[in-house]
Design a protein that fits this description.
single chain; two-stranded antiparallel sheet; 71% helix; mainly alpha; 294 residues; 11 helices
Length: 294
């Protein structure tokens, strides 16, 4: 965080303290969201995510596989037949690394960044309850993750419509549905991905309460996600797969079937909810029982 951004943080916190207890909740959350959404690093991450679907679309357009001869992976062939599939492909590409990385950057800086600047100590001397502080931080990270997911999905839809034919969508089960329903399925997929990122946000928030070095918190969060992804690929650890956070991330393919298959998606949401509860509880215990301002 630059010195100018640090000064802006202090001014926002001072303004929040000046209004006392009259309208703290909404004002505090708006202040936090403004900080998250105006940091140049966070905006740059959104720009990189937005560029992903464009690059994928151009690459497929330039070297489009010949569907009539069965060339190329099926998903890429689906893009050339209907541009809406570019949004789904972009999710597949962004979810394992790029989207969690964006959330890790924001969550890692959420508490550790304020502690390193001294603004966390200032916050906790004003009428800001530590539990509410943690909730506001978490909500702002989740909303950023949802925005990042929406950017990937929207750019996938727009780029796909610009480069490829669009119309009725043939789902993975072979059923053809209207384009409007295809857009609805895209929203469902984006919602599922955003839920997965909410679990990453909980992990990052806990890590951020354990250090005053934002970069260390960001890196540690990414390492946790990568290690879980590696464990998910080890055959000898198959008995752990069902409880590893990334295992059901790509289960959103079930949302592209008719009827929608809820087994994988439901299990994924259950596991992600478990991670959220456990890691938020640990973050709350850290924030409320130890001196995080020293």
């Amino acid at each position: 965080m630059s010195s100018a951004e640090a000064g802006s943080v202090v001014r926002d916190r001072a303004h929040h303290a000046s209004v006392g207890r009259r309208r703290p909740r909404g004002r505090f959350l708006r202040s936090e969201l403004r900080l998250v959404l105006t940091r140049r690093r966070n905006l740059a991450l959104l720009a990189v995510l937005a560029a992903g679907p464009v690059l994928i679309g151009i690459a497929v357009k330039v070297s489009a596989p010949d569907a009539s001869h069965g060339e190329g992976p099926p998903f890429l062939t689906s893009i050339t037949q209907n541009g809406l599939f570019l949004a789904f492909t972009s999710m597949v590409v962004a979810l394992p690394v790029f989207l969690p990385l964006a959330v890790a950057v924001v969550s890692g800086e959420s508490v550790a960044g304020e502690a390193s600047l001294g603004t966390l100590r200032y916050l906790l001397t004003t009428p800001v309850d530590r539990t509410r502080l943690l909730v506001v931080k978490y909500v702002s990270i989740v909303l950023y993750g949802a925005l990042a997911t929406a950017v990937v999905a929207a750019m996938g839809v727009l780029t796909g419509a610009a480069l490829f034919p669009v119309g009725d969508v043939t789902l993975l089960s072979g059923t053809t549905v209207p384009f409007a329903e295809g857009l609805l399925r895209t929203l469902l997929v984006a919602g599922y991905v955003a839920a997965a990122l909410a679990a990453v946000a909980a992990v990052g928030l806990l890590v951020s309460t354990l250090t005053e070095v934002p970069l260390a918190a960001m890196c540690a969060t990414v390492v946790v996600v990568v290690v879980l992804e590696i464990l998910d690929q080890v055959p000898q650890l198959d008995f752990l797969d069902a409880w590893l956070l990334p295992h059901d991330w790509l289960a959103f393919g079930d949302l592209l079937r008719d009827p929608i298959a809820l087994d994988g998606v439901g299990h994924g949401l259950l596991v992600q909810g478990g991670y959220v509860l456990v890691f938020l509880a640990l973050a709350w215990a850290r924030m409320t029982s130890k001196d995080v301002t020293s």
